[in-house]
Amino acid sequence: MAGSFQGIEVSSRALRAFQRQLDTTGHNIANVNTKGYSRQTVDLVSTDPSQTIMGKLLNVGTGVNIASINRLKDQLLEARKLSVQGDQGRYETNLSNLEKVQATFLDVDGKGVSNSLDYFFNSWSALGSNPTSMAAKQQVQFAGSDLAKKVRNSFENLDSQANSQEKLIERTLTDIQALADKVAELNINIKKDMAAGGSPNDMMDKRDEALSELSKLINIHTSQAPDGTLSVFMGSFALVDQVGSRPFPTTYDAATSTVSKDGLTWPITGGKLKGLFENVTQLNSFKGTMDTFANQLRNLVNTIHEGGISNGATGRNFFNDSSPQTGARDFDLDPGILTNASLIATGTTSAKGDGSIALALSDLRNSAQAGLGNQTIGNFFSSFLGVVGSAVNTAKNNVETSYALTEQVDQQIQETSGVNLDDEMADMLKFQRSYQAAAKVLTMMDQNVGDLIDMLRR
């Protein structure tokens, strides 16, 4: 039954409810610049009425209560964010690697492999025109050594980048596990808080932020349980479940972009890890192209040079060679020619004016070769540079597209979950006036009760 003090109770409940709304609004304003924070709102609900009899049975309202404190989240947008961030992480990783590859081959100030190749053939042309000139032979020796050095350095840079990517893979695997463990730990705390009737909104924001970072590393999707915990999956692999986190597979195959454990294999389709796998595969392909370039150049030049007379004998290589061939890794001049330019052959005879070998080697620049896809040496290398340039452009386009999609999704999330100071200030004024009104009602009720007590004392 409604009593004389019910008005005081109704007013005090209203005061508590409006105070919590003011507190929550202040919390939103305080976190307007906090990364990953989601706007929170207080949901109010009317309390159960009391019954009184005044000629008939009446239900009298008893005021308001706090139903819950919620954070504003659109789960579909959050799932979309995880996907686009995975693509962004992948493409950013690709672009960073390809730009380093391109820098390796850029002919800055005419000092790249292409320029050295032209200089090499030009030096043979000059020697063919003056086959008795020791200075011309020394120029060929220098040009050949310079070209070999550029080829070796380019290969070493690619090899170094490949090794760097392998180390980044190991580090990324460690980061994936650390983030999974963090999500699992937050799951435990959120579950405990919700079981006690709490609203662990800030912890949920921290968990979402960890998921956001994880999505940049691998492709993931999530599933939420009624107890508040989130399960995290990479394809069919459960990285985090209601029990905790699982060890992420550390055995991988970059060529197939997969990780494996206990005989099971899972594909990596997004995130930084996917980009790193693609980088390793691409770098190994580029290294293979450089090996082909070095071996073909070695074979073509040596075949012609072996037919020339050097110090009265034939059969001397110009570039070093072995069986099996070692490609670009140790590409260099033949040890004898490296130390003695006089061993360079100029012609097929001992005649002083015979420059046929030198001229044949000079003409090699215009000769299409079956081993190079019916391209000349120069065109083969230029085509390779074109492939690198095209890959860089594609990577840039992919990054720009992923940035645009990420920005679009972030904007949509901000419209739903972000803190708008204008809205918060409007809410603050509304809640303040509500609080003042409830306080006024409480004052009046207190005066009424006081008057009633005074009347009873008379």
Observed structural traits:
458 residues; three-stranded antiparallel beta sheet; 2 domains; mainly alpha; 10% strand
How would you characterize the overall build of this protein?
- The protein has 458 residues and is mainly alpha-helical.
- It has two domains: 6-72 and 420-457, no CATH class; 80-402, no CATH class.
- It has ten helices and ten strands.
- The chain has helices at residues 6-30, 75-105, 113-129, 134-195, 201-215, 271-306, 335-339, 356-363, 377-417, 421-457; strands spanning 40-46, 50-53, 57-60, 64-71, 221-224, 230-234, 237-240, 251-253, 258-261, 264-267.
- Strands 5-6-7 form a three-stranded antiparallel beta sheet. The protein has a three-stranded antiparallel beta sheet with strand order 8-9-10, with no helix packed on it.
- Strand 6 and strand 7 form a beta hairpin.
- The longest helix is centred in the middle third of the chain and has 62 residues, at 134-195.
- The two termini are 26 Å apart.
- The model has no long low-confidence stretch (mean pLDDT 93).
List the helices and strands and how they pair.
Blueprint (H helix, E strand, L loop, with lengths): L5 H25 L9 E7 L3 E4 L3 E4 L3 E8 L3 H31 L7 H17 L4 H62 L5 H15 L5 E4 L5 E5 L2 E4 L10 E3 L4 E4 L2 E4 L3 H36 L28 H5 L16 H8 L13 H41 L3 H37 L1
Antiparallel strand pairs: 1-4, 2-3, 5-6, 6-7, 8-9, 9-10
Structure described in brief:
Helix content is 60%, strand content 10%. The protein is mostly helical and 458 residues long.
Strand fraction equals 5-15%
Q: Unreliable runs, pLDDT <50, ≥5 residues? A: none
Largest sheet: 3 strands, antiparallel
Give the N-to-C terminal Cα separation. Answer: 26 Å
Order of helices and strands: HEEEEHHHHEEEEEEHHHHH
- Shape label: rod-shaped
Supply the number of structural domains: 2
What share of residues is helical? 55-70%
Radius of gyration: 38 Å
What is the number of strand segments?
10
